């Protein structure tokens, strides 16, 4: 899109950024991991703790991927094929758990369904094993279903062919046969992409295992890295931490490779179909009763997954002390006052500024990546950008700390670097999809008519990308405000983020104050998230980084 | 940093603001790097790592600033484990950034001293503060008491620590994890050292169905919720729960509440020796100790009244100097009984 002579400059710029943001930190991590040689690294990797953490992480990721893709796929099939009017609300309902920060989801589930949680005291209801592996898998699945749903729904929009399904039905195939022989094969690429995304996300997950796994002694790689840091005065422990972080990076990259290979195979197998509307099939596929059952089931799911935990969170935030019923007689605002004593406002301000800066800078970084390069260079650089998202947050943070800690440790700048490395891909994805839909001739015409390169960029190229730019910036902003893994490791005196303040509050303070902070974090993000989801409909690509 | 955050937040406005405040935000974390005056007068910044309660830190810092208008603070407040992580990260990236460290339990602070991070004899401890509270590096600031929290109305209220091993309390007792909470380590240390209890005390507790949860805060929550009827926790956590109306009571078992002190220390890296000493002197002065007492803690300075101790309530002390070298060994023996 940019003039040809700008291209080499763009490529050099992007490669330099990739090097500084991703290659150097991961390289430093590797150097630390192998500081005492191959045998030292192997010994650290073979320790009981490290092996258990690897097993737990792999187990959790595989189970969450399987459950989330099955549930997300089923939901996509039933919801996306309904008439447009009844679809919108159900879509928002299904996506809602994704809009709640992972930490808040874990904390509110433990308050709602955990031992001596609100429901336990009110009605003796608990989710058995919530504190432990079962709970970690369950809540991560709830968080991941919307991710799988979004990717599969996008696949349905571009791949499913109602005409083929109708033809199969007309030829006498029953619903199950159609699903097995027509719909699912066509959806295979979307299912694979969804599985890859969910696998990477749950391997990287920190907050849910920390809140629900840690009390039961169930450690994953992310929580082991975090807790090793707490004991890292000892060089052995720091060495183990670097080894585990590197292992975790390798696990994620291996998974991406495998899913990539599967994706390549399935993509060449299936025929790319034209974009079609799914409504006709919907009418053919199900009657009113089935549609009501769907609505009821989705409603029940959202009630259990988000509504009850959020209501309980409100109750805990408003109740004076532990052991009291959340009834008006026990209500107070003092939890909010407690929660906002100390550096909370400062942390909130830091989070907002860091998130806004990250959003702006990520978009600026994306411009040379998507506009200044073309063809294979763009694909390759795009893959490099994606790496930053794939590298687990805790591993990335430790790498950045080793690489840039000397001048920057504990400063807001080092957190910003981590956000840029991690969230570059999140801005890149919608923008890259938007550029794919641009007509290159428009820019050429503008240039031929005498417009300078910047004029052409500003007047012809960027305006149609507005939605993509806003979506990208908005997503980076929301994810940066929610981010807790990296800022929890990197913040220092005077550079605390809001998420770090909440994590501290949970460790040091009362449940009431933690709940008050969690609510403060969730409500505005839920609002921005819903706006983004509504706005996304104008842009056909999923915001998810697949 | 006093920006109008109460206004509805708008993305556009934030982006515009971001450009102008970028430098502020980026620099705020490195405030500690700015050279401070080496005298307690003039303007200087003290960087403090602390696990003390926010209210207490705020009150003490505000009190100090009233008499030292040039002072400002850069504070990193987190649980002990996170402070360990911060110090470890500091040491790998150019040395400890803190001037002052104010901890909760002597054990982790003593470990810093052993690593050579702390400065010996930063101030002269005021007269009247028992010598057993301080070491070469650690200065005591307040006392914490391990006591019993009892669900309201539950009888019989335990009169002594050994009552907890009786059948009346089978399956009803919660304790916190000494690997996670320094105060729980004080409990472990006291019983392990004291004739008549020993590690056998924990075996008996376990056999009587006592359950280990994570932190002393969780003990209070669980007892208030009625999940357990009795728990070992800190007095400073029980009082606010009682005040908030939670259904709990405090019991002060015999032979006494297990006491520990919360130490403060100056780092060897600090270049602001006079300012650090002035701050520590303030924390141990009458006004400083009054701020500590007003936020719910027992001061160490005689003559400053703290939260009321029940009539006839005694206190007992673990021998910290004997405990320091035994940390790992004691935890291993404990975990063999209350394994994760």
TrEMBL record, chain A:
The keyword Transmembrane applies. GO terms for biological process: transmembrane transport. It holds the Pfam family BPD_transp_1. It is found in: Cell inner membrane; Cell membrane. The chain crosses the membrane at residues 59-78, 90-110, 130-157, 178-200, 241-263, 298-318, 348-371, 383-404, 410-427, 467-492, 512-533. Its main location: membrane. Belongs to the binding-protein-dependent transport system permease family. Residues 54-259, 348-532 form the ABC transmembrane type-1 domain. It comes from the Bacteria. This is Iron ABC transporter permease. One of its GO terms (cellular component) is plasma membrane. Keywords: Cell inner membrane, Cell membrane, Membrane, Transmembrane, Transmembrane helix, Transport. Gene3D superfamilies: MetI-like. It is a multi-pass membrane protein. It comes from Actinospica acidithermotolerans.
UniProtKB/TrEMBL annotation, chain B:
One of its GO terms (biological process) is thiamine transport. Keywords: Signal. GO terms for molecular function: thiamine binding; thiamine pyrophosphate binding. It holds the Pfam family SBP_bac_11. Gene3D superfamilies: Periplasmic binding protein-like II (3.40.190.10). GO terms for cellular component: outer membrane-bounded periplasmic space. The keyword Secreted does not apply. Residues 1-33 form the signal peptide. It comes from the Bacteria. This is Extracellular solute-binding protein. It comes from Actinospica acidithermotolerans.
